[in-house]
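fyi for ur records
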Amino acid sequence: MQTISLGEHEIREAVSMSEAIDAVRRGFIGLAGGEFEMPTRTALRDGQFLVMSAHHRPTESAMIKTLSVNFDRAPAITGTVVWSTLDRLDHLVADAAAVTTLRTGAAVGVATDLLAAPDADRLTLIGAGAQGPDQVRAVHTVRPLRHLTVVATHAERAQALADTLRAELDGTEIAIATEAASAVQDADIVCCATPATSPLFPASALPARVHVNAIGAFRPTMRELPDELLADSTVVIDERDAVLEESGEIIHALQTGAIAQDDLTELGAALTTAPVGHRERTVFKTVGVAIQDWAIARLLADKFLR
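which gave:
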């Protein structure tokens, strides 16, 4: 029996964003097809400790992720992803921070490819934390970017992220901003990746046609999007039970009557059988579900467990 342990460097070297997007897309389609056993994640200390698990019936494989989240430290996310199957003794253990940012970006790539306009090429990223780079990489993979604006409260953080991404975005114009409402006015795509507890911008600040990804709020006390945007948009979510328990935006909009549960379409269904409507504004809201981690872990297992 062997246990293969992978750090961030090994994970990044092994899995491209394009591979991650394809794997996560297949995972959501499999979830819609009933291939997974996936309980809602366990959240302790108001989400500072999380445990997520998924079992893929066809391959008799399972993934368990444990992590801690603390936005007052760097990195904010730390933990492990463990992969195992019934037919072998070997296990794979991977760095949870790298898997989490990669799979979250990949889910945004899947949703953006499905929902954003084919010619969308202007992205505004709100949030310059650890999730930011993979948000940009994922969008750029499915919608090559002509312009990127990075928004952060502190300009130096936005500039640092812009500098990190510049070499990967050859030919993309990059700007920084400290105020979200003005920065989203000309965007084709907006990615929100913050720990905000109130909406980052009013719906009126957005153009008539726009796709918005919201990944930052993963507890009922957190919100990045206003009710008015959800009411005026086609809303796609990662998984119904997860967002009804954990997404502050969805919970608040349901409570105020801005939306109804029937207005929510799961990503797996949108990729397979469910029409997603024809509104000019679209929203993808994700709190993160275990099949995303399973999808990345399977890629790693295929590459490292021989």
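The chain has a mean pLDDT of 95. thats all i got for now
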